[in-house]
TrEMBL record:
SMART domains per UniProt: WD40
InterPro entries, alphabetized: WD40/YVTN_repeat-like_dom_sf, WD40_PAC1, WD40_repeat_CS, WD40_repeat_dom_sf, WD40_rpt
One Pfam match: WD40
Organism: Guillardia theta (strain CCMP2712) (Cryptophyte)
Protein name: Uncharacterized protein
Listed PANTHER family: TRANSCRIPTION INITIATION FACTOR TFIID (PTHR19879), TRANSCRIPTION INITIATION FACTOR TFIID SUBUNIT 5 (PTHR19879:SF9)
Length: 268
């Protein structure tokens, strides 16, 4: 499915294969700035300049929730099971809502500002984000308690991602490195060095053995997660790499770039 928004405060959705329109979601009175689906496609959320975030049921178009007083946000992220929605605000705080109850939880980075998007653990128990003090922080969702504060980057983090089993985090930074952190032992596992520009995106392979990263140096690099050893450097983009993703079997990578291309890489 594909969704798009308009300045008129509407979100429209279409089937990806047929192009058939499947819904028009209304309620916002301002320009819609961000749209996000649940992973199963059953719900869609949108944020607007009117200071609200609205959630609709995809099939019926019914509005399920409207969260008010959400001003100047830059990110929406669903938990894996679609039960909760997180929003990062421009003031460096995070708000999380439970869809069924409407309950709200708030998170802050204690005397610093959250600068990356929020990333959910696979089971929805934790969220992680990077702060402008060069740390990577982890909170327990239900209690809003900060559980970890990983230090080591020389400049602020740009992206944070969980391993599949939630035992580790990887973070990319403006310091041109990727660092891997272990949750239980609260330690840095390794530091991946080689990029010549800021790291903009990081992705774990499904088996958790490898990491892929993209950078403003226009390369995609692959690392051994436990040692930080670089095993591949793919060149071909002519602009900053903005996204990377693994195929399910780990045999291929796909990357998107500011050069308006999407490239597929193999030969691991």
């Amino acid at each position: 499915m594909v969704a798009a928004s308009s300045w008129k405060g509407k979100v429209k959705a279409w089937e990806g294969d047929s192009g058939k329109e499947i819904g028009c979601f209304e309620g916002h009175t301002g320009v819609i700035t961000i749209v996000s689906w649940t992973s199963d496609g059953k719900m869609i959320a949108a944020g607007s300049s009117d200071g609200s975030v609205r959630v609709w049921e995809t099939n019926s178009g019914k509005e399920l929730r409207c969260f008010q007083d959400v001003k100047r946000f830059s990110h929406l992220a669903w938990s894996k099971d679609g039960s909760m929605l997180a929003s990062k605000l421009s003031n460096g705080t995070v708000r999380v809502w439970e869809i069924s109850s409407g309950e709200e939880m708030r998170y802050s980075a204690r005397n610093s500002v959250i600068v990356t998007g929020v990333t959910w653990s696979e089971d929805g128990s934790f969220i992680a984000a990077g702060s402008n003090d060069c740390t990577v922080r982890v909170w327990e969702v239900r209690s809003s308690e900060q559980l970890r504060c990983f230090k080591g980057h020389g400049q602020q983090a740009t992206c944070v991602v969980w391993s599949r089993d939630c035992s580790m985090l990887a973070s990319g930074s403006e310091d041109m490195t990727v660092r891997v952190w272990e949750m239980n032992n609260r330690r840095r596992v390794c530091c991946c060095t080689g990029h010549k520009g800021r790291v903009t995106c990081v992705a774990w392979s499904e088996n958790g053995k490898f990491l892929a990263s993209g950078s403003s140096d226009c390369t995609v690099r692959v690392w051994v997660a436990k040692s930080g050893m670089e095993i591949r450097c793919f060149r071909g983009h002519t602009g900053c790499v903005t996204s990377v993703a693994w195929s399910e079997d780990g045999s291929m990578l796909v990357s998107g770039s500011d050069d308006t291309t999407v490239l597929v890489w193999g030969n691991f």
